[in-house]
Every structure is written in C-alpha cells, then in structure tokens.
Amino acid sequence: MSVGSALTFSDRELRDLAIAWVALGVAFAVFFAGGGSGLVSLLSRGGFAVAVVVSLLTAGLGFLIHELAHKVVAVRFGQVAEFRADYGMLFLAVVSALAGFIFAAPGAVYHRGVLSDKEHGLIALAGPAVNLVLAVVFVPVLLLGVFTGSGFLDLVGSRGVAINLFLAAFNLLPFGALDGRTVLDWSTPVFVAVFVPSVVVTILVVFVFGVGF
Asked: What is the per-residue pLDDT across 32-80, written as a single tens digit (0 to 9) for each?
C-alpha cells in the first residue's frame, strides 16, 4: 500500500464540483416538487428557494461527498485523482426532473496509477460507505425537526436519510460501472456484508415507511 500525497483541488475541479452541486440542487428541487407542473405551483407560492436549499443540503451533498470519498481514498493510495463533472448528464438531470422523474449522474472521480484489486475495491466502497454514514448523520436532524415542530429540519432530515440510503444501495448494485461491481470483483464477503444491509434498510426506511417522500 502506497502513501498518498496531500489532498489538493485544481481550479477546474472546484468549478466542476460547484456546478454539479448547484445543478443537482435545482434538479432534485424540481423532482420533489413533482416535475414541471409542480414547479409552476411551487414558484407561485414562493417556495422554490427553500426547496433548492433543502436539495443542496441533502441530494447535492450526498452526491458530491460520495465522489469526494472516492478521491480521498484514491489519493491515499498514491493516485492522481480529480472529479470531473459531466455537463451533459447534469443537463439530463434537470430535464428529466422537469418530466417528473430523475436520472442523475453528475460526473465521476478519475484516477490513474497502479492499484491492487483490494485498493480498487476500497476506493469504490468509499462512496457508498460515506452515504451510509451521512444517512445516520441526518437522523438527529430529522428527530430534532419532529420534536421541535420545525418543518424545515424535518424535511432536511428525512430527505437526507432517504437520499443517502438510496445512493448507497443503488451504487452498490453489482452491475456495469457502479461501485458494487468493483467491490464484488475484489471481495464477495465484503460486498455481501455491505450490500445486503444497505438494500434491506433502504427498502424499509424509504419504501415501507416512506421517509423522505
């Protein structure tokens, strides 16, 4: 295992991170409003700014911290790693949200260097693992909102829990370029130990109890 250099960000990377964060915030605000028709209603009620802030704090941070986790671990293993936004996919995220559904793939962390299967696996695992941690972090926010009667905190907490659980479970699917495929290629026991609980908890919290939706 090689020891990486200090974590640094280029001007282009910082710009891409900022653009991806804002674009995802807008896209998820539109999606949760109910698409284009819901957006018109939300704008008429003056609630769009609050909806964007909620999405920036939940979906936006969930996606970007996921990618930054990949970068941190890659750099730890001596890689040259940078995030690059995919502007076409960011545009698609906004357009799909207007249509009432959302497809979000804001970009990826690209790295180069020689790695073992374990190092590849750990880099891939870092993103979903951080989303699981973030889901737990948002639980006190949700509880605080419930106990204080704060609709804003309730919304931020519930969306933060739901979105991060979904991101973890989805990215751990063992298909294509998703993180789960790389983790499974490295270690089946590790994959099963993380993937199965993630899916079960996501189904219970998001789809059975309806948290965040």
From this structure: 999 988 888 888 888 899 999 999 999 999 999 999 999 999 999 999 9
Structural contact between residues 50 and 91, judged by C-beta atoms closer than 8 angstroms:
no
157-161: Cβ within 8 A, 24+ apart: 158/211, 158/212, 159/32, 159/54, 159/55, 159/58, 159/59, 159/212, 160/57, 160/58, 160/62, 160/134, 160/135, 160/212, 161/135, 161/205, 161/211, 161/212
Phi, psi dihedrals of residue 112, rounded to the nearest 5°: -140, 150
Tokens of 185: 């290629």
Q: Are 90 and 20 in contact (CB under 8 A)?
A: yes
Q: How many CB atoms lie within 10 A of CB 37?
A: 11
Spacing of C-alpha 103 from chain mean position: 12
The reply to whether the predicted model has a pTM over 0.70 is: yes
Tell me the catalytic residues.
67
Residue 14 class from Cβ within 10 Å (0-12 exposed, 13-18 middle, 19+ buried)?
exposed
Mean pLDDT value across the chain: 93
End-to-end CA distance of the chain: 43
**Count of Cβ atoms closer than 10 Å to residue 65 Cβ:** 17
> What is the four-CA torsion angle of 11, 61, 85, 36, rounded to 10 degrees?
-130
Distance in angstroms (rounded) separating the CA atoms of residues 175 and 194: 15
